[in-house]
Write a structure and sequence with these properties.
Blueprint lengths: L4 E6 L2 H22 L5 E6 L11 E3 L2 E3 L7 H8 L4
Parallel strand pairs: 1-2
Antiparallel strand pairs: 1-3, 3-4
């Protein structure tokens, strides 16, 4: 069985207030629309200590900073192309 891809979204107060609350909803909807919810371990995390770079999204070993509702789907499309 394939290990699920891990997606962590920072829900620390700075990232949350700057857009990760909405980004989390977008990620959940996108995963459901693509039918890959079972292939992903999606969870919120507490502060990642990168507040100046936030909102932060980590997928596998890649960290994305300054993630906005306008860019989150593009990141997912790029990383999950072909799924």
């Amino acid at each position: 069985m394939k290990t699920p891809t891990k997606i962590w979204i920072c829900m620390g107060s700075s990232c949350y207030a700057r857009g990760n609350a909405q980004n989390a909803e977008i990620v959940q909807r996108w995963l459901a629309a693509k039918g890959i919810v079972s292939e992903v371990d999606f969870a919120g995390t507490l502060c990642e200590g990168r507040c100046k770079e936030g909102p932060i999204l980590k997928i596998g070993d890649r960290i994305f900073s300054g993630v906005t509702p306008a860019t989150v789907e593009d990141i997912l499309e790029h990383l999950f192309a072909g799924k």
